[in-house]
Design a protein that fits this description.
mainly alpha
Length: about 140
């Protein structure tokens, strides 16, 4: 029996668990900054989370997608619409039918003075989730 396997598995498990712990701490700090209205700081902290998702937490695609959408909200509130759209698009690359990413993308397009693109994005959301709150109001 090989003695290498348990040692390697333990080391890899510890690395992944520590990475997940760092991501959780970053998320708590980012949410706190967002709630205090420090959107640039919150976006930076979500950026720190992205380095964890590119490292040992790379298997957590859903966590990365949610972090991208949260960072997009920070960029949008900070009026950096290009960065917000980029984050929404990156989230949609991971999960193309993620309603929150579709909605935030549509809002960013609308605020970026691109109503035709925003309408198409809202219609795409309608095809994915007909029960999205107040979606018909946005389409009118």
């Amino acid at each position: 029996m090989c003695h290498f396997w348990p040692t390697w598995a333990h080391r890899e498990g510890v690395k992944r668990l520590r990475s997940m712990k760092r991501t959780l701490k970053c998320e708590i700090r980012a949410r706190d900054s967002y709630e205090r209205g420090k959107f640039k700081e919150a976006a930076k902290t979500y950026g720190e989370m992205m380095t964890e998702y590119d490292g040992y937490a790379k298997d957590d695609r859903w966590g990365k997608c949610e972090a991208l959408v949260a960072r997009a909200a920070c960029h949008r509130r900070d009026r950096d619409l290009k960065a917000a759209l980029a984050d929404c698009d990156a989230a949609l690359d991971l999960y193309p039918r993620y309603p929150r990413a579709l909605f935030r993308r549509a809002l960013c397009l609308l605020e970026d003075q691109r109503p035709a693109d925003a309408l198409a994005a809202f219609e795409q959301l309608l095809r994915v989730d007909r029960n999205w709150p107040n979606l018909l109001d946005w389409l009118i």
